[in-house]
Design brief:
With 311 residues, the chain is of the alpha/beta class. It contains eleven helices and twelve strands. An eight-stranded parallel sheet has the order 11-10-9-8-5-4-3-12, with helices on one face. The longest helix has 17 residues.
Length: 311
């Protein structure tokens, strides 16, 4: 287990992404994945109120509702860390105090719980003063509805400003950042943003840790993959992507594990990263991910992957 920032949240080194629950994974499949993850020792589940409003016939909240029903049937709430997000649900958009107050009640109801362990501002909302957002979050912490706060998709300047306001005005502060970060998408996080996270004692919980599925190794030249993310993942299939896959293939064979596990282990070994997020539609897909939680890459192996993925 690893500690998230300055919080008291100890989490499994692989966070289970819930974006597929109620979307490409039906309830039965979702329950099976959640059961298998928990059986492996996993305790960190990530979702959002907007998941999966983009799917035909959905309006948002589907993932939270699936997780909530699983929690009720399995009775596992107290030994799990549940993270969700506010700000992107079409019917509860933005980070105003009024919206946060309404949105959190919806998330709590769908999750079937009286508290959220880690509550993210999903995307920075420049139309609302940071002090207003942080003030609303602080009230939720005081009420016991939220244990800790985090930011997702914040750039360096806005995250720094938010952290400064929390300190200056004695408001609850962010303990984690959820950025896009993986072997082939590094420029947005590495550098100033990662340095700020380190200096302020936050933890990074990266999303798209497998680059929309590209780093599972199933995307190869001449191979057609039936997936709603195929176009995005296929965009990485260039000279650099092929270099990365070649090293991943070699290390996966050497460690007798999956390509995905090696890619996630590289991410988990990066400074400030506490647990990369990865999702699975089926138990078989989850099996390809779980090795990352225990795989320790040697320094030279980490360096080879780092160099392969450099632009």
């Amino acid at each position: 287990m690893a500690r998230i920032g300055t919080s008291d949240l100890d989490v499994y080194p692989l966070c289970l992404g819930g974006n597929v629950f109620g979307w490409t994974s039906d309830e039965q499949q979702s329950f099976a994945v959640l059961d298998a993850y928990a059986a492996a020792g996993g305790n960190f589940i990530d979702t959002a109120d907007v998941y999966s409003a983009w799917a035909e016939g959905n309006s948002g909240g589907e993932s939270e509702a699936v997780i909530g029903r699983w929690l009720a049937r399995r009775g596992r709430r107290d030994d799990l860390v549940i993270a969700t997000k506010v700000g992107q649900l079409p019917t509860a958009k933005g980070l105003s105090a009024a919206n946060i107050k309404v949105a959190v009640e919806g998330s709590l109801h769908r999750l079937g719980t009286d508290h959220i362990d880690l509550y993210y501002a999903h995307i920075d909302d420049s139309t609302v003063p940071l002090a207003e957002t942080l003030g609303a979050f602080t009230e939720l912490v005081k009420e016991g509805k939220v244990r800790h706060l985090a930011a997702s998709n914040y750039d360096t300047d806005r995250l720094a400003e938010a952290l400064e306001i929390s300190k200056r005005e004695n408001l609850a502060g962010y303990v984690a950042l959820q950025p896009e970060y993986n072997l082939v998408e590094r420029e947005g996080y590495e550098g100033k943003l990662a340095a700020l996270v380190a200096i302020e004692g936050l933890s990074a919980v990266p999303y798209w840790g497998l680059a929309k599925g590209f780093l599972t190794g199933k995307y190869r030249p001449g191979v057609t993959v039936d997936s709603p993310r195929a176009a995005g993942a296929g965009a990485y299939l260039d000279d650099r992507g092929l270099r990365v896959l070649a090293v991943l293939d070699e290390l996966a064979a050497a460690h007798r594990t999956s390509v995905a596990s090696v890619a996630l282990a590289w991410l988990g070994a990066q400074p400030t990263v506490v647990a990369p997020i990865a999702s699975a539609r089926t138990v078989e897909q989850l099996d390809d991910l779980l090795g990352a939680a225990t795989l320790e890459l040697a320094e030279d192996e980490i360096q080879r992957l780092t160099e392969a993925g450099a632009r």
